[in-house]
Amino acid sequence: WVAASLTKKRLTLARFSGDSAAPLATKFDVIVIGGGHAGTEAAAAAARCGSRTLLLTHRVDTIGQMSCNPSFGGIGKGHLMREVDALDGLCSRICDQSGVHYKVLNRRKGPAVWGLRAQIDRKLYKQNMQKEILSTPLLAVQEGAVEDLILTEPEPEHPGKCRVSGVVLADGSTIHAECVVLTTGTFLRGVIVIGLEMHPAGRLGDQPSVGLAQTLEKLGFVVGRLKTGTPPRIAKESINFSILNKQTPDNPSIPFSFINETVWIKPEDQLPCYLTHTNPKVDEIVLDNLHLNSHIKETTRGPRYCPSIESKVLRFPNRLHQVWLEPEGMDSDLIYPQGLSVTLPAELQEKMIKCIKGLENAKMIQPGYGVQYDYLDPRQITPSLETHLVQRLFFAGQINGTTGYEEAAAQGVIAGINASLRVKRKPPFVVSRTEGYIGVLIDDLTTLGTNEPYRMFTSRAEFRLSLRPDNADSRLTLRGHKEVGCVSQQRYERASWMKSSLEEGISVLKSIELSSSKWKKLIPEASISIDKSLPLRALDVLKYEEVDMKLLATAVPEPLKKYTECKELAERLKIEASYESVLFHQQQQIKEVQQDEALQLPKDLDYLTLRDVSLSYEVREKLHFIRPETIGAAGRIPGVTPAAIINLLRFVKTTQ
Ligand code: FAD
């Protein structure tokens, strides 16, 4: 390890001091190709698991680069970040050191579907990520373009055509490893597009990865093509913010990481965002110039949930579309107009921007552009993210057809852990759909595949009431520590303490009974809909919106006061109480579905006429077209709800 860590220091020094003669080790446990959001997590996770790891990427100074929006999190995505953090991943902690505007989305709904989100200082994120990566023990970093894979005979005990044993760089040099993780994002045969101009590039200013794409195709991997795009950047000083709707950050800010109580910056020092809208003039410019826009003419699929302005105008004409003006950083002069991803020729982009309220005098600093790239059908990988075709080769991130930093990070951490476990000949670490959004993401990809950029939503998770952002540590940290060793002792101890305190707290709350005279003092008259003379369990009193642990402890100081001393514990007890009865019901349903996952669905079942089974027409139509073989497969069809599966299961069992 001393040698490895010295190698790492030499490599880092080699990069920063220009000492190109510094020697490079030629054999590692794990090589990760790509320093984006999947690659950084994969490399750090493999190293945390004790594997000597090399991160090979085009440029050290683009490690952690946010290719598009300067923000992390959101609905479903914030959940993934909490889970990455629960496995001691990096992105949540780095966001807590780099955010400039923290806001929880979906507050009107319950905490199970809150979306932790923050605007991030692009420069700071990159700096903090690079600092973290370059100081991770057992992790070396090397610049280089990987052009090919070194392949050897497969291990007889594992299926697969061949086994990867290293990589070939553009200069012809080779580096060997037990496992290789590929996280090349949008770079495989990447082409960027503005108007009618097309240039080979992974993203603006970066070379594409062509040799590697050819290698993968030659190996027999099924390759598809997807596209995405990014908006222009606008000079901050050229925007008239005074006439726009201002959005202020939350106070207090909720950190992404379980190990942080606060973020690096006070809410009053954070930056605002502003909202404006498109108008019919924008539609007109888009529609009049479709012939000058090759990206939009491409039949390749783009992101459904983060579409370009052209797609929105074509799909929903005559509507006003939101444009959020978001800061790119604390000292940045740029504004990112979210919602305005566009590939028109640059001069038309500027003309379009100037039609929008508040942007009449806007100065465009960088035009928006599109990118088209190869992705690999994710049904070619296992739930551990290892490929079926080539042993010890793992894929993670946008290469698997996903979009978004969080989806990439989530896959990265799992690929890094599993590559390390593979080296140690240990069984893979798999997160199930009932354990986490990471499980939902990977299960969707590996079983259903995708033909459009896949992004996470809470609606994709059947058991979202138990997969909450607040409890990701209870779900994953203990497993991560005990089964794979990717979680630090300090984090493990904290998560164990929290889990046992919650269990103890819930059982205490269940055991205390409050007389009606006591509980009526805590709950406003208007909120009470039960018999006012009955006693209530403390847990049931805590379910009322107006009651929190602090208030409850005023009525029963002993033994409840001690559960108010840790703010997070008190808040989590409140959330647990709110979901207690619904979760009990859901646990029963999970058990019921798990027991019968393999139950065969009748081959001749006519779903379209199943009107008495409480299935929506949309669900019946999906079942009709996909014709799943088992209940488990039916439950994995996007949009088929857990409630629908329960109804279908009960129907099939009664008719068998
Ligand atoms: P990336 O972050 O792309 O990282 C890939 C890394 O691999 C890079 O460091 C690259 O240098 C390295 N690399 C590639 N090939 C090689 C090689 N042969 N040798 C060595 N290193 C190599 N997401 C959204 O959620 N919403 C959006 O609106 C959105 N728009 C986007 C617009 C554009 C123009 C782009 C480029 C991306 C957009 N994304 C968007 C996607 C988001 O940026 C990605 O999902 C995310 O960055 C993927 O992470 P990754 O780690 O898989 O790949």
TrEMBL record:
Catalysed reactions, as listed in the record: 5,10-methylenetetrahydrofolate + uridine(34) in tRNA + taurine + GTP + A + H2O = 5-taurinomethyluridine(34) in tRNA + 7,8-dihydrofolate + GDP + AH2 + phosphate + H(+)
Domain tRNA uridine 5-carboxymethylaminomethyl modification enzyme C-terminal subdomain span(s) in chain numbering: 577-650
Keyword Flavoprotein (UniProt): yes
Domain of life of the native organism: Eukaryota
Gene3D superfamilies membership: FAD/NAD(P)-binding domain, GidA associated domain, C-terminal subdomain
PROSITE patterns found in the cross-reference section: GIDA_1, GIDA_2
Keywords attached to this entry: FAD, Flavoprotein
GO BP annotation list: mitochondrial tRNA wobble uridine modification; tRNA methylation
Xref: Pfam families: GIDA, GIDA_C_1st, SAM_GIDA_C
Record's GO cellular component terms: cytosol; mitochondrion
Bilayer-spanning residue ranges: none
Molecular function terms, GO-annotated: flavin adenine dinucleotide binding
Cofactors, names only: FAD
Record keyword NADP present: no
HAMAP family attached to this UniProt entry: MnmG_GidA (MF_00129)
Subunit structure: Homodimer; forms a dimer in the presence of potassium. Interacts with GTPBP3; forms the GTPBP3-MTO1 complex composed of homodimers of GTPBP3 and MTO1.
Purpose of the protein: Component of the GTPBP3-MTO1 complex that catalyzes the 5-taurinomethyluridine (taum(5)U) modification at the 34th wobble position (U34) of mitochondrial tRNAs (mt-tRNAs), which plays a role in mt-tRNA decoding and mitochondrial translation. Taum(5)U formation on mammalian mt-tRNA requires the presence of both GTPBP3-mediated GTPase activity and MTO1 catalytic activity.
Similarity remark: Belongs to the MnmG family.
Protein name according to UniProt: 5-taurinomethyluridine-[tRNA] synthase subunit MTO1, mitochondrial
Species: Suricata suricatta (Meerkat)
